[in-house]
């Protein structure tokens, strides 16, 4: 339960950074500007740089993991509290948001959450017995999904005037981003009190006793040059390219076409329990000798979902009121659940594999190394894809009078006020989203057979193949 709670509060700032804020920005920002904001998520992929410090520096009186978890959560609470006073104005959809200030603030929040993740990952290896270590990825999946649910689904729904009017009969939204951040402050303080009161438990240090910062950095370098690790790195850095256009742009495109944010919230409400169920099922499948088999199945499922997504966007019934009574709502809901099934299978499966091969003496850093590469695989292409969508797109202002088209000039999808003032409509003559999606899918299908062989080789390696050279000599 403690692990699930800690991963949940970690998911609160991540859900805002990766999902909610980009949707709030879309109505007044270009894809290039959203690409700038996506840089706020990079600390989650760079946490390996400081993870040895988290593993090696701590107070024995407080505990190896609580020495970091307690102050980090308090700093997060303080940062969220002060941010709440000006965040609504910064994300104001009626005027150009201050992208760079917003990016800097969320960059700092994600850095704190990423550092907490290092400590919690290492704590998970000692809280769970070796035979139950595959459950660590299930706890992470459930916790992060709950955090994302609160920061994405619940927040967007209760901050949407349409949702509150249609489903709660309220004339005004219940939540603003400012109020939500203040509520998160209370959650962080409460959980921190619980962590202070709960003991850390016995910490196992592995073969070499207490490690030093220099020693951990040395072992990280040794691990990185292992032949087994090089193969795993290639898989982790390339496996999410196929999905990046869908994950980053599809929901934004649907919102552009009129698919309400309240519908996204309803989707996530339905998707949340399904992901929890998928996580439990996948954890059971990962208990055998081949924990990566569900990962490969999930990869294929996601390829299919991402191939169908552009069709769902292209055939969106513009002009219709898409709501829970419209057939399109259920069609896209089905596609969303298929993608969630594949995504959860991949996440839980790779997490179970990470827990199995990690060395407990540098557990936080070892898992961070692996999770960093896994996260980086889904982050490094994101900036380029969002930027490329804008570069490859072409919009023109058109107005039809009888059989003639007039006002034919280039316009900006972000700011079409000049076109509207002239009585025209800013239409996409060429949409870069489709080109980017096709490019990603070609790469994804091209790598399919490589991944099949790679996971077979990875699962066939002995546990000693993953140990640092310095520890291997001691065994």
Evaluate the radius of gyration.
Answer: 23 Å
Number of helices: 20
In the CATH hierarchy, what is the superfamily of the largest domain?
MFS general substrate transporter like domains
CATH class of the largest domain: Mainly Alpha
Might you state the CATH topology name of the largest domain?
Answer: Growth Hormone, Chain: A
Distance between the termini: 34 Å
Low-confidence stretches: 202-208, 471-475
Report strand order across the widest sheet: 2-1-3
GO molecular function: acetyl-CoA transmembrane transporter activity
Pfam family, one: Acatn
Transmembrane segments: 6-25, 68-87, 99-120, 141-159, 179-199, 220-244, 292-316, 328-354, 366-389, 432-451
Protein name: Acetyl-coenzyme A transporter 1
Describe this structure in words.
Strand 1 and strand 2 (404-410) form a beta hairpin. It is globular and about 70 Å long. The chain folds into 2 domains: 2-393 and 431-474, MFS general substrate transporter like domains (Growth Hormone, Chain: A), CATH 1.20.1250; 398-427, no CATH class. With 475 residues, it is mainly α. Strands 2-1-3 form a 3-stranded antiparallel β-sheet. The protein contains 20 helices and 3 strands. Helix 1 (2-26) runs antiparallel to helix 10.
Question: What is the fold's blueprint, element by element?
Answer:
Blueprint: H1 2-26, H2 31-38, H3 43-46, H4 51-56, H5 66-83, H6 87-90, H7 99-127, H8 134-158, H9 161-168, H10 177-197, H11 213-224, H12 227-238, H13 244-257, H14 261-285, H15 293-314, H16 327-357, H17 363-392, E1 394-401, E2 404-410, H18 417-421, E3 425-430, H19 432-459, H20 469-474
Antiparallel strand pairs: 1-2, 1-3
Helix pairs in contact: 1-2, 1-7, 1-8, 1-10, 2-7, 2-17, 5-7, 5-10, 7-17, 8-14, 8-16, 12-17, 12-19, 13-15, 13-17, 13-19, 14-16, 15-16, 15-19, 17-19
């Amino acid at each position: 339960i403690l692990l699930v709670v800690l991963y949940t509060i970690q998911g609160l700032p991540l859900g805002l950074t990766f999902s909610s804020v980009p949707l709030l920005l879309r109505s007044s920002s270009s894809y290039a500007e959203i690409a700038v904001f996506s840089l706020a998520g990079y600390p989650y992929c760079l946490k390996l740089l400081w993870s040895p410090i988290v593993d090696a520096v701590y107070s024995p009186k407080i505990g190896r993991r609580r020495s970091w978890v307690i102050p980090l959560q308090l700093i997060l609470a303080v940062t969220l509290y002060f941010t709440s006073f000006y965040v609504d104005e910064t994300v104001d959809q009626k005027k150009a948001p201050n992208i760079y200030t917003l990016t800097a603030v969320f960059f700092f929040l994600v850095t704190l959450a990423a550092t907490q993740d290092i400590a919690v990952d290492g704590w998970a290896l000692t809280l769970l017995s070796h035979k139950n270590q595959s459950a660590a990825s299930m706890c992470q999946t459930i916790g992060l999904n709950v955090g994302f649910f609160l920061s994405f689904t619940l927040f967007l729904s209760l901050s949407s005037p349409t949702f509150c009017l249609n489903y709660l009969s309220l004339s005004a939204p219940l939540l603003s981003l400012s109020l939500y951040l203040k509520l998160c402050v209370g959650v962080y303080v409460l959980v921190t009190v619980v962590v202070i009161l709960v003991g850390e438990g016995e910490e196992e240090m592995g073969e070499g006793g207490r490690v030093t910062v220099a020693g951990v950095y040395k072992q990280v370098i040794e691990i990185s040059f292992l032949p087994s690790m090089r193969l795993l790195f290639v898989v982790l850095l390339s496996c999410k390219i196929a999905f990046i256009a869908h994950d980053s742009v599809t929901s934004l495109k649907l919102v552009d076409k009129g698919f309400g944010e309240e519908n996204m919230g309803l989707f996530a409400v339905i998707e949340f329990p399904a992901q929890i169920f998928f996580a439990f099922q996948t954890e059971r499948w990962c208990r055998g000798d081949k924990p990566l088999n569900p990962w490969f199945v999930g990869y294929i499922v996601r390829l299919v979902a991402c191939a169908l997504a552009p069709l769902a966007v292209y055939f969106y019934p513009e002009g219709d009121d898409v709501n829970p009574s419209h057939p399109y709502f259920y069609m896209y809901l089905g596609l969303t659940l298929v993608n969630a099934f594949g995504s959860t299978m991949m996440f839980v499966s790779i997490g179970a594999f990470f827990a199995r091969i990690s060395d407990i003496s540098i557990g936080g850093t070892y898992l961070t190394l692996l999770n960093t590469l896994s996260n980086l695989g889904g982050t490094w292409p994101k900036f380029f894809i969002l930027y490329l969508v804008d570069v490859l797109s072409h919009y023109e202002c058109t107005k039809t009078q009888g059989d003639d088209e007039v006002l034919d000039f280039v316009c900006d999808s972000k700011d079409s006020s000049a076109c509207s003032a002239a009585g025209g409509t800013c239409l996409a003559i060429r949409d870069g989203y489709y080109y980017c999606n096709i490019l990603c899918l070609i790469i994804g299908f091209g790598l399919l057979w490589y991944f099949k062989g790679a996971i077979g080789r990875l699962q066939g390696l002995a546990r000693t193949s993953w140990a640092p050279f310095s520890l291997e000599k001691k065994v």
